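User: Show me sequence and structure for the first protein, then do the same for the second.

Assistant: Starting with the first protein.
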Amino acid sequence: MATQATNIKVLLAKLGLDGHDRGIKVIARAMRDAGMEVVYMGMRVTPDQVAQTALQEDVDVVGISLLSGAHMRLVPRLIKAFQERGIAEDILLMVGGTIPEDDVEPLHEMGVQGVFPVGTFTTTMTDFITTNISRGRSAPQA
């Protein structure tokens, strides 16, 4: 059973032109059921929109779902947008979706703490959040 994660605020979004949102809605519900406050931005948002919303909403976690294969182009833009707003160090960044194994380490090197390919159990994600928020977002764990 997943740990209850009260007072953790998560922002979820679909970057780019990806048009499939069933999975992220399942994830949003699982996070909510684990006690997290979830803000879902929807589909087809830009890195700047995500960063600005993360700043305005004062979130602890940003979860990005990408099924389009554009993660290696969009994630650096998102991290740059976080840096421009001075929030890069304050946010636990997670990326999930169609992520080839060869891209996991480069994503970690960019600053993504958690990478979750299609098929990852939602409890793996919620446990990752509670573990990393409680210990201050140190090293990547997934």
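Switching to the second protein now.
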Amino acid sequence: MKIKSESKLAIFDTFKTKWSSLTGEANRQRAIITILSSNANPAERTRTGISQRIAKRQGITWKNLYSGIFRDLDEVLLPMEIAEEDGRLPLKRGPKALQEKGIPYYHLTKKGVLVALAINDDKNREKLLKEFFSMAEPAEKEFEAILTNLSKTSPIFTDSIFQKYVKAFCDNKINELLPLDLSKLKDIADESLIIQKEILSAFVKLPKQEKEDAVKFLDKIT
């Protein structure tokens, strides 16, 4: 199978010596995507606005972040069609040409919403799921009901599915994120998914008392 060239999306990148710690680039791209997936107003979705929101949260000067935000948008998120221009805000000051063109602000594409589902917390999950499936192709709709239900009953498991799917793309294990095809995960050796499937398949076959005993056991160890 032909694999695409290495993805620049770095949202899962960690330090080589600290594999549990995300890199600065990973955290920055995650922050940009999170802001664009929120209800931020247009001014907060410009390069400057994004830099200021992240800087405020980190307690640093926004100008120190601007070049990184500019690079992430223009070299990664826009070319990869994860984000796109959503409009332009008029300028009252500055060069005339810039005043006429205005300042661009951005929003997530359908692909970007899918990526956001892999990094957002449960506060935004329902909104993102609805947004994604409102743009879904007929073939993608087969996942809508089960994922919507699982997001309410098993939110951590649902998040892990999106994380594994998007990470597989970032690791060049699947060629494209769209159209959404979770069956691609079958081709990726993921022990945690295999274990979860084994437990669920066995659990539904257990008699009532053994199911209760299994739940009690899991309660003791988790």
